[in-house]
Amino acid sequence: MSKERKITRYFIRMCYSFSYKLINNFREIIIILLLCGLIYQKFQFDDLESALKAQDIERGELKYAMNQLTADISEEPPGRERDLKLLELQSKGILVGGSRDKIKLKKGDVCPEEYINNQNWPYQFESWRKLDCDYGQNIEELVTIYFDYSDEWERLVDSIRTIYPKIRLITNCNKSSLPKNVICLGKNPTTSVIKRKVTTKYLLYGRDLDIFTEWADLERSVRLLSDSDLSIFGVGGAVRNKTGFWTNGCFQLQFDYYRLQLEEGYKLEHDDCMVCDYTPSPTMILVQQLQDSDMTLEQYFLHVAIRKEHIWLACPDIMYFSRSKIGKISLEKDELLPVAKKHKIQGIITQKSYDYDMTFDCEDIGLSCNAWSQASEILVPWCCIDNVRHILTSLESIRNEFGIDYELESGSLLGAVKLGNFIPWDIDMDIGFMRRDFDLLRIGGKAANKLQSQGLVLHTYKEDMYHLKGAGMFNIDYGGIFVEMLGQLRNLSQDYLPPHLARYSTRIQMAPDLWIPTVANPGLYARGRYGPGYLYHVQSWRHVDNMDGGFDNYEPSGWQPCSDLTNKACLIYYPIIGNMELGPLKYP
Question: pTM for the full model?
Answer without folding.
Answer: 0.88
